[in-house]
Design goal:
Strand content: 15-25%
Oligomer: single chain
Largest sheet: 10 strands, mixed
Radius of gyration: 19 Å
Shape: globular
Structural class: alpha+beta
Number of helices: 8
């Protein structure tokens, strides 16, 4: 009998050990989605220094990578993790979980923390998003995004940029050059959120129901990136 009880307890302990990491991972994804929502709220709290209305209205997809800590830059490897959602005929999609990797940004080394926002501005950018992985500056053209209520006419981003990129560090919000960085699927987080590593085109195409922990992030994007008046 004692052997049976001991065996049962061992099996129970092994089962618990396999569940705990998954639960911790779920909590990390949920916290990341909350942080991404907070980044957008804080940026848009000052419209004169936020993302221009014309960009908000014309966005195809939005990527938010919240709060890089300075230690992430010292090795020049992984920058951070975040979430992305794309506009669909039925509204903004369930989010995909992403990571951004590449070389350091130079001036941010030693900084406290940095939030990144990327805005996909046309069909080509959307196609890159659906492909799960691409390199800014090589696969997809990117430009530092303009800041303020209205973007000035005739700037390069209107002609060339597939993605507009922004950085917020120490309260300052401005466009930033992210050439050379790679945006890709965070496979572990995708499995944690959806139970499997779903393809980006399925999630961002609006074929997947938004999980409860991601509803606030999607609603926050929808609140600021208003219904587009641009013909997509």
């Amino acid at each position: 009998m004692n052997k049976k009880i001991t065996g049962f307890l061992c099996a129970l302990a092994m089962g618990a050990s396999s569940v705990l990491p998954a639960a911790a991972q779920d909590a990390k994804v949920t916290d990341r989605l909350k942080d991404a929502s907070a980044v957008l709220d804080e940026i848009m709290a000052t419209p004169d220094k936020g993302i221009p209305q014309s960009i908000l209205a014309g966005a195809y997809c939005v990527v938010v990578i919240p709060a890089y800590k300075k230690g992430a830059f010292l090795l020049g490897a992984q920058y951070g993790k975040g979430a992305a959602t794309c506009r669909t005929p039925k509204g903004w999609s369930a989010p995909v979980l992403v990571r951004l990797t590449g070389g350091s940004f130079g001036w941010q080394i030693g900084g406290q923390s940095t939030d990144l926002v990327m805005v996909a501005m046309n069909q080509n950018a959307l196609n890159h998003m659906l492909a799960n992985k691409f390199k800014l500056g090589a696969d997809a053209a990117a430009s530092a995004g303009p800041v303020g209520r209205n973007a000035q006419a005739g700037t390069d981003w209107k002609l060339n940029a597939e993605f507009l990129t922004y950085s917020r560090s120490k309260g300052l919000f401005a466009g930033i050059d992210l050439d050379g960085t790679v945006l890709s699927s965070d496979d572990d987080d995708m499995r944690s959120e959806y139970g499997s590593n779903l393809p980006f085109n399925k999630v961002l195409g609006g074929q997947v129901v938004t999980k409860p922990n991601a509803v606030h992030f999607v609603h926050t994007v929808a609140k600021y990136f208003v219904v587009s008046k641009v013909n997509h």
